[in-house]
Amino acid sequence: MKDRNRTVVVGVDGSAASTTAVSWAARLASSRYLELEIVHGLQTAALGYGGGMAGADVLFDAVRQEGERVVAGSRKVAASIDEALVITAKTPTESPAPLLIGLSRQARMVVVGASGSGGFAGMLLGSTAATLVSHAHSPVAVIRGRNGTEHVPESGPVVVGIDGSPNSEQAIAAAFEEASTRRAPLVAVHAWSDVTYEDFYGTVRIMPQWESVEEDEERLLAQRLAGWQEKHPDVEIRRVLRRDRPRHALLDAAETAQLVVVGSRGRGGFAGMLLGSTSQALVQHAGCPVLVVRP
Asked: Which of 69, 125, 194, 252 is buried deepest, with most CB atoms within 10 A?
C-alpha cells in the first residue's frame, strides 16, 4: 500500500480539461517530490460486460484500448513536466466517482478537471467532481482556468476562505502550506452577509450595528490566523473583510489568484459549505484552481 503522503492521484479522460489537470498535478508532484498516479475509469458496467450479451467482448476491448490510449497520452504529458517523476497508471473497470473516492483514502490529493468527457463524462457539479468534493477522504483539487479557458494561472496569491468552523481550520492549514511551497502571499478572506430571518409574511432583514459586527468579524479572523504566521514566517498575509456573500468575495479574489482553498462545509459567514453553496460556486465558476479540503 502506498504512503498516503507520497501520492497525488489524477483522474483522466482524454479531454482538454483532463490534460490540463495532468499538467497541474505533475507540477505539484514534481515540486514536492511526490508520486503521480494516473487513473482512467472504464465504466464497463454500462456495456453489460460479463452478462453474456452478444458483442460485449468486442465493445469492452474497444473501451479498454481507448482507456490505454488516454492513459498513455496522460503519462507522456506528465513525463514532459519532469522525466524523473515516478508515474503509475491504471484503467480499472469502475465508474470514475467511486473509483477516485476509494483511491482518495490513501492519496495526498485527488486532482480532476472542471469538465470532461469519456471516462469522466460531464465532470461538472452533479457528476464526478461534485461527488468527489462531497465525499472524498483527501483534499480535492478541481482545475479551472482563467475566464473559462484552459489557461491555468501560475502566479498570484493563494486565497483561503475563513469562517471559524473546524473544517475552515483545516483549510487554513492547507492554504499556508500551499502558499509557503509556492512562495506566494496568502490572502485570508472572511465575508459575512446581512442577517435575515423568515416569518409568516416573508423575509425580514435585521439591521444590526455594523461597526460592532465588523469588529467581531475582524476579531474572529485574527483569532483564526493567530499562530499560523509563527509556523510559516515566510508567508506574507493579507486580510480581507467584506460584508458580502462569501461566494462573491471569493470569486472576486479568485480572479487574480493562482489557487483558492476552502473547506467543504462550514458555518457562519460560510454557512452550509457543501455543494449548492460557496464551494459549489467556486468549483463551477472560479477563475483559478480550487482546492477543497475535506474533514
From this structure: 125
